[in-house]
Amino acid sequence: MEEQTKPDSVESKSEKQKPNPAGMSESRFSGMSRRELLKVAPVLALGAFAIPGAQEWLLKKGLGFSDWASEFTFRAGHLAPTFSDSELTPFEKFPINDYDVDDPGVIFENWTLTVSGAVQKPGDYKLEQIQALPRTRQNTRHVCVEGWDVIGRFGGTRLSDFMKMIGADTSSRFIALTCADDYYETLDMATALHPQTLLCYEMYDRPLTRGHGAPLRLNIPTKIGYKQAKWLTDLKVTNIVKKVGYWEDQGYSSFYGL
Amino acid sequence: MSGAVVEIVRTKGEETEAVARAVYEHPLPVRLCHWLNAISLFVMTGSGLQIFRAFPSFGAKIPQKDLLHWPKAFAIGGWLGGALQWHLTFMWIYIATGIIYVAYEIFSGNYRQVLFTHRDIPGVWPMVKHYFFFGEKPPQREVYNPLQKHAYTTAIVLGALSVVTGFAIWKPVQFSWLAWPMGGFHWARLWHFFVMWALIAFVFGHLVMVLLHGWNNFLSMLTGWKKDPEY
């Protein structure tokens, strides 16, 4: 490139008046232009996103990279913002969200949380056993993947305390959860041990209502709404999960940390 | 290489005549970034509007008052999950392109061609008179006139703002401080939306100008060379 243009670039005003014998011929110029055009062609690689088979794979990779970045930015000791009582969204304006039914009809008297996997004390845990652990109350923001958010007051047991009680192997990677409405979720260990991650049995200082996941749900201010499963029935500490979550398995982000 | 000038000549027997002049305006990194950015901005806007469709409001969820119903035909991704995949994939291309472009402009010195500075201020009004009030066209001495510089500099700032506002709503916990100057999480989402419309307005104006007098400009963004420049 340099070689071709150097003689031409030493051009002066006077030469502009009459034809420049050192000028570049039309064919040479169009040849050079064509080569320069070809150099921009790598941009067409993005066209791979238009190929149906490749598109799915590429988008999965892109989402995976975003999840990796989310996990990378997660800090175990960093707390989600908390709010004063005056900033709370009124309880009746806290949306009830679910994939299927507003009330899967849990029979409270028979309810237990079934614990399994890499734990020293597996078995069925009653709500009273969970409530006997120290209670945490927090006003935190609940963010929905759709774009809305509310500030709610949540109360419950720190999941990390419960993990201690059941003797969970915290070197395991995941906590797999299943729910009374057949919803299911997976939580990474770092988030499970975060001080604001609660096994939530209270909202606005009152027992959890059926619509909000009674008797027990997750409250995780560092996660998007769909990871905060309601109507919990089973908790498994594990290194392997075949399915991640109801929404995740349809293409939503697996980690979705806020 | 940037700024090189050639005279294009036609030879007929003994006779040689100059038929055109050409200036090398856009180095390869600029051209690559321009087209990568064009594509990623298109995808970010389309998928962003599909994400917006899931909750087309900036108020409370209960009661929900929709701001506007954006047609699905003008959105990318088909559904919320699909749009998020596009958005969370192309944002990295968008960010990388922006960083590479700005770094190149700074280190190559090419920013002088684009950056609007105080020296361009006196030239703004004559250009406005020409564009909007049929005033005489001021002589052009460089690649971009003051209004173009203003538009492109603004677009670069808007691009940076789109990323910052985006991170404020994607990571309201880890980067909670980001939303603070924007007025909080709610406002950050609104700012992200505003910035998108500002970028759409820029692209619209940009395309109109290219259509009006831009064939040589368009070619120069592909080959780097602009034939018959006005300066």
Task: Write a concise keyword list for the protein shown above.
heterodimer; A: alpha+beta; 5-stranded mixed β-sheet; 5-stranded antiparallel β-sheet; 7 helices; disordered N terminus; B: mainly alpha; 3-stranded antiparallel β-sheet; 8 helices; 3 strands
Q: Classify the beta-strand content of chain A into a percent band.
A: 15-25%
In the predicted model, the low-confidence regions of chain B spanning at least 5 consecutive residues are none
Instruction: State the separation between the terminal residues of chain B, measured CA to CA.
Output: 17 Å
Mean pLDDT of chain A: 90
- The total count of helices of chain A amounts to 7
* Class by alpha and beta content of chain A: alpha+beta
> Are there runs of chain A of 5+ residues with pLDDT below 50, and where?
1-21
Shape, per Cα inertia axes of chain A: elongated
The number of helical elements of chain B comes to 8
Major protein interface: A-B, 67 and 61 residues
- What structural class should be given to the helix and strand makeup of chain B? mainly alpha
Oligomer: heterodimer
**If strands are numbered along the chain, what order do they take across the biggest sheet of chain B?**
1-2-3
- Elements of chain A, N to C (H/E): HHEHHEEHEEHEEHEEEE
Task: Give the helices and strands of chain B as they follow along the chain.
Answer: EEHHHHHHHHE
Describe this structure in words.
The complex is a heterodimer of chains A (258) and B (231). Chain A has helices spanning 2-9, 13-17, 26-39, 52-73, 127-131, 159-165, 189-192, and strands at 24-25, 113-117, 123-125, 135-143, 149-158, 174-179, 184-188, 198-203, 206-207, 217-219, 232-238. By secondary structure, chain A is α+β, with helices and mostly antiparallel strands. In chain A, 36% of the residues are buried. Residues 1-21 of chain A have low confidence and may be disordered. By secondary structure, chain B is mainly alpha-helical. Chain B has helices spanning 28-54, 80-108, 111-114, 124-133, 146-170, 176-179, 185-213, 215-223; strands spanning 5-12, 15-24, 225-227. In chain B, helix 5 (146-170) runs antiparallel to helix 7. Chain B is elongated. The two termini of chain B are 17 Å apart. The relative contact order of chain B is 0.13. Chains A and B meet through helix 1, strand 1, helix 3 and helix 4 of A and strand 1, strand 2, helix 1, helix 2 and helix 7 of B. Strand 1 of chain A pairs parallel with strand 1 (5-12) of chain B, so a sheet runs across the interface.
